[in-house]
């Protein structure tokens, strides 16, 4: 993902020409539109120790607050701001032993790059800066991509719109675009360009496998954020209307069951265990897999495949195979 390509020439130049200044922590305010609301406790504690021992080594990116004079809105760096809180022990509900590991005082001022950006520019810069991070959980990553998709589609951005509501709105729009791309060539082209710049996945894949994470209920959302349940396993669990099955699946997922194992449980519950069997066999029938069998086993497998072929064609099995 090329930061310069995502920011564009004008915004990249503005971001590079900001003013460096030390600002008091109380002058800084998190942006209300920031989607990231989950901060790993252990990681934040480690960062709190670091900023007390070595100070904040990376600039926060801020802009003059739109309504509060003398204050600045955080575009990138909220995690550093939180870690520098003198009362971080209370904020993280640290144990006395953990508080004892915080040696030194919290910094009174933080190094900030002050940039003059309007709302859409601030959102884009925030999303791009945060997507560069390696510690984003799947939900936060989907949230920051959502900001960029919102801009690419030219949708109005409200400060206090719930992420789940925005995800639902954009999900409906992406569904429409996917079903009739020829009717909306400019929007589909904009999405294609954006996700080519972001890399790793297409906008269609995002709409199917990542955007729905933002509409999960709290129990599943928390489990995904904490890495205890994989995203697609959570979506599978969320689709179940049988509460007993849902509870069983969640329990199994939290115990480490794979997506394949959970799918098997769903198929069995629905009286369609054959679907799991078919998927498993299909995954084992590649040419390379058959090549690795010895001649005797391969002959038996091929014979079974011919019988299956006859059965699916509606004819009698070929007993000579």
What's this model, at a glance?
This is Nucleoid occlusion protein. The protein has 321 residues and is α/β, with parallel strands linked by helices. Helix content is 57%, strand content 8%.
Topology:
Layout: H1 3-7, H2 9-16, E1 19-24, E2 28-30, H3 41-54, E3 60-64, E4 72-76, H4 78-83, H5 88-91, H6 96-99, E5 109-114, H7 119-131, H8 138-152, H9 163-179, H10 185-198, H11 203-210, H12 218-225, H13 231-238, H14 243-254, H15 259-269, H16 273-283, H17 287-291, H18 295-313
Parallel strand pairs: 2-4, 3-5
Antiparallel strand pairs: 1-5, 3-4
Helix pairs in contact: 7-8, 8-9, 12-13, 13-14, 14-15, 15-16
Describe, in plain words, how this protein is organized in 3D.
The chain is of the alpha/beta class and 321 residues long. It has 3 domains: 1-132, Conserved hypothetical protein from pyrococcus furiosus pfu- 392566-001, ParB domain; 216-281, no CATH class; 284-313, no CATH class. Helix content is 57%, strand content 8%. The chain has 18 helices and 5 strands. The protein has helices spanning 3-7, 9-16, 41-54, 78-83, 88-91, 96-99, 119-131, 138-152, 163-179, 185-198, 203-210, 218-225, 231-238, 243-254, 259-269, 273-283, 287-291, 295-313; strands at residues 19-24, 28-30, 60-64, 72-76, 109-114. A 5-stranded mixed β-sheet has the order 1-5-3-4-2. A hairpin with a 7-residue loop joins strand 3 (60-64) and strand 4. Helix 14 (243-254) packs antiparallel against helix 15. The radius of gyration is 26 Å and the shape is elongated. It starts with a helix and ends in an 8-residue tail after the last helix.
């Amino acid at each position: 993902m090329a930061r310069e390509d995502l920011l564009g020439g004008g915004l990249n130049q503005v971001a590079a020409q900001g003013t460096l200044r030390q600002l008091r922590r109380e002058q800084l305010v998190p942006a209300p539109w920031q989607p990231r609301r989950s901060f790993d406790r252990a990681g934040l504690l480690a960062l709190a120790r670091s900023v007390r021992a070595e100070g904040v080594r990376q600039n926060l990116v801020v802009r003059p607050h739109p309504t509060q004079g003398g204050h600045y809105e955080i575009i990138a760096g909220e995690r550093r701001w939180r870690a520098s809180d003198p009362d971080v022990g209370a904020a993280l509900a640290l144990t006395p032993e953990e508080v004892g590991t915080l040696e030194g005082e919290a910094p009174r001022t933080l190094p900030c790059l002050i940039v003059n950006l309007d709302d859409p520019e601030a959102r884009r810069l925030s999303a791009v800066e945060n997507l560069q991070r390696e510690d984003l959980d799947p939900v936060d990553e989907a949230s920051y991509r959502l900001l960029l998709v919102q801009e690419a589609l030219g949708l109005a951005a409200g400060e206090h719109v719930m992420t789940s509501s925005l995800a639902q709105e954009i999900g409906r729009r992406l569904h429409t675009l996917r079903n009739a791309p020829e009717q909306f060539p400019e929007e589909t082209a904009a999405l294609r360009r954006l996700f080519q710049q972001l890399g790793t996945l297409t906008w269609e894949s995002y709409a199917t496998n990542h955007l729905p994470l933002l509409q999960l209920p709290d129990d599943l959302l928390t489990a995904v954020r904490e890495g205890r349940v994989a995203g697609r396993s959570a979506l599978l669990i969320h689709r179940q209307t049988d509460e007993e099955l849902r509870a069983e699946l969640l329990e199994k997922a939290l115990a480490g069951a794979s997506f394949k194992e959970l799918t098997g449980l769903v198929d069995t519950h629905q009286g369609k265990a054959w679907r799991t069997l078919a998927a498993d066999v299909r995954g084992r029938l590649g040419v390379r897999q058959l090549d690795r069998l010895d001649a005797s086993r391969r002959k038996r497998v091929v014979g079974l495949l011919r019988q299956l072929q006859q059965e699916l064609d509606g004819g009698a099995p070929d007993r000579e195979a």
